[in-house]
Amino acid sequence: MSYLSKVRESNPLVHNITNIVVANFSANGLLALGASPFMADAHEEVVDIAAFSSAVVLNIGTLNDYAIQSMVLAGQSANKHGVPLVLDPVGAGATSYRTAVTQKLVNEMQITALRGNVAEVANVIGESWSIKGVDAGEGDGDVVVLAETAARKLGCVVIITGKDDVITNGDNTYIASNGHPILKKVTGTGCLLSAVVGAFLAVSEGASLEAAVEALSFYGVAAEIAAELTTGQGPGSFQIEFLNQLSLVTAETYQDKSIIKQLR
Amino acid sequence: MSYLSKVRESNPLVHNITNIVVANFSANGLLALGASPFMADAHEEVVDIAAFSSAVVLNIGTLNDYAIQSMVLAGQSANKHGVPLVLDPVGAGATSYRTAVTQKLVNEMQITALRGNVAEVANVIGESWSIKGVDAGEGDGDVVVLAETAARKLGCVVIITGKDDVITNGDNTYIASNGHPILKKVTGTGCLLSAVVGAFLAVSEGASLEAAVEALSFYGVAAEIAAELTTGQGPGSFQIEFLNQLSLVTAETYQDKSIIKQLR
Amino acid sequence: MSYLSKVRESNPLVHNITNIVVANFSANGLLALGASPFMADAHEEVVDIAAFSSAVVLNIGTLNDYAIQSMVLAGQSANKHGVPLVLDPVGAGATSYRTAVTQKLVNEMQITALRGNVAEVANVIGESWSIKGVDAGEGDGDVVVLAETAARKLGCVVIITGKDDVITNGDNTYIASNGHPILKKVTGTGCLLSAVVGAFLAVSEGASLEAAVEALSFYGVAAEIAAELTTGQGPGSFQIEFLNQLSLVTAETYQDKSIIKQLR
User: Fold this and answer.
1) pLDDT, tens only, C82-92
2) DSSP 3-state of A248
3) Are residues B63 and A42 in contact, defined by beta-carbon separation less than 8 angstroms?
4) Looking at CA atoms only, how far is residue B250 from chain C in angstroms?
């Protein structure tokens, strides 16, 4: 059975500590997909929630010291209870505060999957990278090397999204080429992808790399279909149709349209 | 005149202390309905805002200690000034923290209406209830008994939503059967219902039970129409059409389609 | 070249310190327009972000003491680095706390543009004004006088929105008459306008008044087109189409439909 079908069958609880910009969109995207979102960051309860959730997703979009401490508590609880843990290091490298926070997070917990753009991932592992105009092209060996280096250093799956997406655990590496540029015109589409990866990891039974690759295919194909159905209409209509497609796209559809290349 | 017409005529100010997931959707739903939302939780101003509002709605979705204190201040101010007060105990029972917070809130203020699912309401009054797979069926005496027990214990209207909804003040009890399952695929539809109940209470002149019953009918019928108009399209389209219908459905429409049964 | 074209060409970074109700809508509106939103309020990073942004927009929608201090830090950093600074004094006058906060903000930093309704602007400069039912009609001399007084007192562009909008720097004054009443049925349309003004100021090279006038025309025309395309459908559909139009409307379109009158 596909991971998507497993998500839809078991409705895994996904605990999100996220930000004021994307909380609604992330919850609606997870619901559309078939998962059960739980947004909470109070120190008094995140340890409990992470423990009984099927995945925990940390997103530093509008971080502050309170939320960071929430993330540490939830992340360590996820680790203790064997719950898959996703980190989205939004804006790492944009400020020294964000860079320091993401490095603190990866030091204090074991991430299952890290999802960011190339500059964010580079900054998480202490490499500098120009933030503007960088995309992970299929032939761009540097991005692949960066992803694999990060995966080995952090001991986790690393997903670098760009024009093409790199997904690697350090040993095996895939390039995923679905998706659509209009995703960049809707806020939180990267954050929601991280949450969707969490939902797929929730039903992966340890096959994190395979589940992540499938999550990327599903998400990219849903975006392509939504973009095609709203051609010329604008990002408002795309956003709504994308939520629709997250609920409508089947495993057969995205497996049929999926463009995945295994590098090694 | 129907309570809906009164809301649309007087645009009551509804003060919401709510969460980062549903704040936007709740505000847009209240505006569509014809009410005036005011979202604010600063300790320095909630006492004032609650005092001059026509209803106060407290929602613990992404609670923390600061927001709880805001709720206590606003709730007590609402009580002092005779302003109807709605509590949505999101996730009560899911963590001991949430259970404790909701019990603290009902102890420190007099709620006018409590709106939650069966597990949430049970936990507010200290009864345990399994959280998963519980719906308030018409023939499910236990849910009715629970609602009536809670209403008497708290001295307020209790609304338990599920497949069917129970609305009671402890003496008179109604079952409302409008609505649509796709509501569960959009985050915050329960929270927005609580806010809509607040708007109806704002114009109820003390007839809380009747106003709550009418709010449930209105909301359920709007959902049914929106679901029919977006059949097969997905939760994105439903969400938008639902906002449309909250502004378009008239008292005549929902009174015509309303499925209400008085139990006693 | 129009300011709109400059925004779309340079994608200016707009730093927003805003509220939980409108953060998502503001970010999506800025993205649709062609700007790059950055929402962040942590004290550890707002000074840095304001410094490298092309505009800073402060919105007190769901203010609290932490966010106010964030605004002071970001505003003073914007001033130091010559970055245009917009203030949206949401609800000034509704509570004494809000009034005091807005007065503190304008005292501790130099605003480039203030955008509010007539009651909000009046309260920022310490004049009382009835909050309900006040619109800036073309023939309403008092609103124009208020706007010009505020502009001179604060040394900035003042934009008072209502049925018609007044835009002035104290010396030159314009009345803009585009827009549509359904804007009031969608939460955050005023807040997003303030953010859009920020994006236009970001590319204004000091021509703040001209950029603000153009921003108002663009925004009003986009609303008119969206309202026409969704006639009779409701505020949900309007909201989505409005986001579409923010990405679709060209400088030619809004310059053609713009209704601007220079008073002096």
Assistant:
1) 999 999 999 99
2) helix
3) yes
4) 13
- Tell the residue number behind the tokens 């402890």, with chain if given: B170
Residues of B in contact with A48 (CB under 8 A): 95-97
Q: Is A39 annotated as a binding residue?
A: yes
Q: Which residue, among B21, B182, B240, B241, would best test binding to A if mutated, counting the most A CBs under 10 Å from its CB?
A: B21
Q: Chains with 3 or more CB pairs closer than 8 angstroms to B?
A: A, C
Chain A nearest C-alpha distance from C240 (Å): 5
Q: Spell out a b/e string for B77-111, using b for 16 or more CB atoms within 10 Å of the CB, else e.
A: bbbeeebbbbbbbbbbbbbebbbebbbebbeebeb
Sorted by sequence, the CB contacts under 8 Å of residue B28 that are 6+ apart come out as: B243, C186, C187, C235, C236, C239
Is the model's pLDDT at A153 over the cut of 80? Answer: yes
Whether chain C has a CB inside 8 Å of the CB on B66: the answer is yes
The dihedral built from the CA positions of residue C256, C257, C258 and C262, taken in this order, carries a sign that is positive
Q: Could you tell me the maximum CA-CA distance found in chain C, to the nearest angstrom?
A: 48
pLDDT of residue B134: 37
Interface residue C29 vs chain A (CB under 8 A): no
Q: Is B33 on the interface with C (CB under 8 A)?
A: no
Q: Tell me, yes or no, if B234 comes closer than 8 A to chain A by beta carbon.
A: yes
**CB < 8 Å to C94, chain B:** 38, 49
| Nearest partner of A13 among C245, C102, B131, judged by Cα | B131
A259 in B contact zone (CB under 8 Å):
no
B222, B196 Cβ separation under 8 angstroms: no
C65, C95, C120, C184: which to substitute to probe chain B, counting the most B Cβ within 10 Å?
A: C95
The number of beta carbons lying within 10 Å of the beta carbon of residue C171 is 10
pLDDT tens digits, one per residue of A74-98: 999 999 999 999 999 999 999 999 9
Number of CB pairs, chain A paired with chain C, less than 8 A apart = 86
Within 8 A of C45 by CB-CB distance, chain A residues are 95-98
- Alpha helices, H only, chain C: 3-10, 23-33, 46-52, 65-80, 96-108, 118-124, 141-154, 189-202, 208-229, 235-248, 251-257
Chain segment C208-251, per-residue pLDDT in tens: 999 999 999 999 999 999 999 999 999 999 999 999 999 999 99
**C187 CA to centre of own chain:** 14
Q: Which of B176, B248, B255, B181 lies closest to B209 in space, CA to CA? A: B176
Cβ–Cβ below 8 Å for A235 and C40: no
Whether A61 and chain C come into contact, CB under 8 Å, resolves to yes
3-class DSSP string for chain B: CCHHHHHHHHCCEEEEECCCCCHHHHHHHHHHHCCEEEECCCCCCHHHHHHHCCEEEEECCCCCHHHHHHHHHHHHHHHHCCCCEEEECCCECCEHHHHHHHHHHHHHCCCCEEEECHHHHHHHCCCCCCCCCCCCCCCCHHHHHHHHHHHHHHCCEEEECCCCEEEECCCCEEEECCCCHHHHHCCCHHHHHHHHHHHHHHCCCCCHHHHHHHHHHHHHHHHHHHHHHCCCCCHHHHHHHHHHHHHHCCHHHHHHHCCEEECC
CB contact, 8 Å: B64 with chain C?
Answer: no
- Cα(A49)–Cα(A62) distance, rounded to whole angstroms? 21
Establish if A247 touches chain B: CB-CB under 8 angstroms.
yes
* Strand duo B85-88 + B36-39: pairing: unpaired
What is the C-alpha to C-alpha distance for residues A61 and A89, in angstroms, rounded to an integer? Answer: 8
A254-to-A33, A179, B4, B42 alpha-carbon distances in Å:
13, 11, 45, 47
Q: What is the ipTM of this complex?
A: 0.94
Measured CA to CA, the distance from residue C264 to residue C256 in angstroms comes to 22
Site of tokens 């209207």 = B157
In this predicted structure, the answer to whether residue C108 has a pLDDT above a threshold of 60 is yes
Question: Taking the model in full, what pTM does it have?
Answer: 0.95
pLDDT digits (tens, 9 = 90+) for C8-28: 999 999 999 999 999 999 999
